[in-house]
Write a structure and sequence with these properties.
This protein is about 60% helix and about 0% strand. The chain is an all-alpha fold.
Length: about 130
């Protein structure tokens, strides 16, 4: 835990700072410069950019870049395959199925980003450390 008075990095579980003796509390343990993530910003990024085919931007804002890029690339792959099938005379129903998968992925990335931002803020408030 980081001391709020002298910024000394103390081992987890101690009650007093090993450098200055200041009492450590869960609220005082916040890492300097680390703030909670705004839920509204996360959802705006996930929804608005998702509408334009940029899935996972809420995840990237939260520091989960690998997951965000996975959502982005998965959607692009599903969309490209879906468009190819939609313009094929016989296989257009398969293209529609790919479109529905993309819509499901859109809502999943929104719900997942919302869950992650709530988890991030809860862990930060309780421990003073970022969860990942």
């Amino acid at each position: 835990m980081c001391c709020s008075k002298c910024s000394f990095d103390n081992p987890a579980g101690v009650s007093f700072c090993g450098n200055c003796g200041h009492e450590l509390s869960k609220r005082a343990a916040r890492v300097l410069g680390v703030k909670s993530k705004d839920r509204g910003t996360t959802l705006v990024l996930a929804i608005l950019l998702g509408l334009f085919g940029f899935y996972g931007m809420g995840h990237i804002y939260l520091g989960r870049a690998a997951r965000g890029v996975a959502f982005l690339l998965t959607d692009w792959a599903v969309s490209i395959v879906g468009v190819v099938f939609m313009f094929t005379a016989i296989l257009w129903p398969v293209g529609v199925m790919f479109f529905l998968v993309s819509v499901g992925l859109f809502f999943w990335q929104i719900l997942d980003a919302d869950s992650l931002v709530r988890h991030y803020n809860k862990v930060l408030e309780e421990t003073g450390n970022v969860p990942w």
